[in-house]
Give the backbone structure.
Amino acid sequence: MRLEVRSQLVHAAKGGDPADIERLLEAVWPDAYRLARAIVEQTQSAEDVAQEACVIMFRNIATLRNPDAFPTWFYRVVLREALKHKKAQMTSMMLSDNAAYYEDCSASLDLWRALATLPERLRTVIVLHYFEDLSSREIGKIIRTPEATVRFRLMTARRRLHPLLQERESSPRSKGEGIYAL
Amino acid sequence: MHSDLSERCRIAREHIEIPPFPSFSIRAAVERATRPAPRRYSFGAVALAGVSAIAIAAAAGVLQQTHVRFSPLGGLVVSSVDKMVSRPIHANAEIRQAAEHLDFPATLPEGLPDGTMPVRLLAVDKSLLVITYDLPGVQRRSHHWLSIVIANPTTMSASTASIAARYRLRSGKNMSRAHWRVGREDVITLSNGLTLPEIARIRHAMEQEAKEATQ
């Protein structure tokens, strides 16, 4: 797993001292934000999701029976919050505040667009596998799905992404494309 | 494909800018969540109070379909019951045409930097327009978008805050914002590319325009 948290931090946080919990959450904040960002697509929403996940972990860390299971629990909480957020978002249009991002990372942008075309269940496995370096088995544990199903979804997702990324490589991006309203 | 995708994902992941850890917000949220729940009223009492509030709001003519608020994190949020219609535009005449359908006397943006081009118009209900402009000048580089929101002041009132919004429009919290009232409308500019004197010029020009319209 990409998430590396010192077990002392988790043990200390389980004690319930707010300062210890905050130290742990601060350590995992970048991973929480990145995962949320990869699922919900929008920076503002990703921050809300990561923050909400941190609040849940803050409140429930004491109930975590096995500290070694923290990474799995962490991914599960962030993922659940991100998917919940996406579902609740009936129609939301992001007024882009980071035009620099659009202009500087065109390769990444193409990937984001291609990912956005994937259905939730395929996008989730791709993000967990390629962004978080998780194995099919670990992903299966997080999303409570058999390992073989995860592998099948990964294969399906790769097949769907392949032509999209090829196509985008060959066609240059027109100016202003991708910026919805602002 | 496999390794190419890995590489792309790695690059995309590295490009994600991490905001600072919101320690204060998390603490505040945890404290809020652990506070004892407020007293619960019976369904009948809530229904009666709700009906009365709606009746009073309807009588006062403040029942709006759209609401504008500034989120605690710094962004602007427009909520609406009606669908938001966004379309590309190429001339100020199209903005004037759209403004004719608004439910308040609109003063359109004036005093913009020379060479500013309108590019997109978004209408929300009859009470709000978001006009996006492309600002000129290489010095603005990536900050060349300017959005101006002109809204009926009733959309900003607290009485419209609880509408059952089906559509939501958000601005990024990092976007610099200016807000003022001119005539009978609220104006909000959202841009990181405008300088303070330029904002002052727009405001002054719009105030002049509103003054001339009332005379």
